[in-house]
Specification:
By secondary structure, this protein is an alpha/beta fold. Helix content is about 35%, strand content about 15%. The protein has two domains: about 220 residues, Rossmann fold (3-Layer(aba) Sandwich), CATH 3.40.50.1820; about 130 residues, no CATH class. The chain is globular. The strands form two sheets. Strands 1-2-4-3-5-6-9-10 form an eight-stranded mixed sheet, sandwiched between helices. Strands 7-8 form a two-stranded antiparallel ribbon.
Length: about 400
């Protein structure tokens, strides 16, 4: 992948774009605020899918005004960061969570910091942030997970030495779920199954309605603006329960994602009223994905079911997140409940110092864009509670 080093798009005052060379094999594009004053504590913001560093633009000035050096990278596979391969058949190992953790660790070091004072991961950035806190709590001494609950690490079977039955092979659950969803009436499929497939990149990159219209509908449907989002916990990870999810999560079996969202595109009036993602701002996403395609970003979905990469994560079998942690979701976001029981497992088993689960009113999935001021208040309160604001970058 190649990219222009000149970022094109509206940025808030005080936020700059630049490239940082040689970061764990990448040249990383970052947005940065609070960079004028040396010695500020570092706030590292990790985005998810199909977001970019640009998704943090509304939040960054608020954290910089509070005294932080704020850095949001385009993660591996996304945007203007280069050094990754985009082909479906290229190796998945570079996109594994432990290598994404190394990306974050290398970026902190390249920036001249020894540790973060604030680490925030949204969507796919959430498990990356979780593994940062698991693997290097000395560098990442607190963590905020957003929109994607972390249910813990893959574990080795326990106390099986005297069992006459061999443990079940791992990674069969996705195949079983796919078969069960396909047997529903009407037949359905899980969005992760679809986005892991070979055809997904072409569908998202060249949708019939056009890329800009597709992205507008996708962002809209997962936001608090769409009245169809009325999320609630699901009782169990069964096909019948999962079928309650909107079709952008549990899709009709015979439809692509572009076909799924097209009939629910917002009206012209709704687009004009959307102040958290204006047309010029959405044009940044359209231009970036038109240039790169989606396959680099979609590799992250495939990582979930790769046997070798899941085996690698068992290095942390039984390990918990033991640094101060916080979960933040949007009240109108189904992502909090896509994995039934994950919120409860995260708080009871996967973490030992979680201060709470905060759900922000007036936000769907894109919290940092929809409600940046409310998010900033929660982040700064948590950082004050954990002493983050007093840590220096050295």
């Amino acid at each position: 992948m190649t990219a222009s080093t000149t970022f094109q798009g509206p940025l808030p005052q005080g936020v700059r774009s630049r490239m940082i060379q040689g970061v764990n094999g990448l040249d990383v594009h970052v947005l940065e605020a609070g960079h004028e004053s040396p010695g500020r504590p570092l706030a590292l913001l990790l985005h998810g899918f199909p977001d970019l560093a640009y998704g943090w633009r509304h939040l960054m000035p608020l954290l910089a005004d509070a005294g932080y050096h704020v850095v949001a990278p385009d993660q591996r596979g996304f945007g203007r960061t280069t050094g990754w391969l985009a082909a479906y058949d290229s190796p998945l190992e570079p996109f594994g969570f432990l290598n994404l953790t190394r990306d974050a660790l290398a970026l902190v070091s390249a920036l001249g910091h020894r540790r973060t004072a604030m680490l925030v991961g949204h969507d796919f950035g959430s498990p990356v942030a979780a593994y940062c806190a698991l693997a290097r709590p000395d560098v990442f001494p607190s963590v905020v997970l957003m929109s994607a609950p972390f249910p813990g690490t893959p574990a080795f079977p326990f106390n099986t030495a005297d069992s006459e039955t061999a443990p079940a092979p791992p990674n069969l659950a996705p195949q079983r779920l796919a078969a069960a969803l396909a047997a529903l009436n009407p037949p359905r499929k899980h969005y992760q199954q679809y986005l892991s497939g070979r055809e997904a990149n072409a569908d998202l990159w060249h949708p019939p309605q056009g890329l800009h219209a597709f992205l507008r509908a996708f962002f809209y449907l997962k936001s608090g603006d769409w009245p169809g989002n009325k999320p609630h916990p699901l009782k169990a990870p069964t096909p019948a329960e999962l079928a309650q999810l909107p079709t952008y999560y549990v899709m009709d079996l015979d439809k692509s994602m572009s076909q799924t969202v097209a009939p629910l595109h917002p009206t012209a009036a709704e687009v004009a009223a959307c102040q958290w993602l204006t047309e010029p701002e959405l044009a940044v996403y359209t231009a970036e994905y038109a240039r790169t395609g989606f396959q680099g970003a979609l590799q992250l979905y495939r990582v979930f079911t790769d046997p070798a990469l899941n085996a690698e994560l068992r290095l942390f079998s039984g390990r918990t997140i033991d640094v101060p942690s916080l979960f933040i979701g949007g009240k109108s976001d189904w992502a909090n409940y896509v994995s039934p029981g994950a919120l409860e497992v995260m708080k009871a088993k996967a973490t030992t110092r979680m201060s709470g689960i905060e759900l922000i009113d007036g936000a769907g999935h894109w919290i940092q864009q929809e409600q940046p001021a409310r998010l900033a208040a929660l982040l700064l309160a948590f950082s004050k509670e954990t002493g983050g604001a007093q840590r220096t970058g050295a």
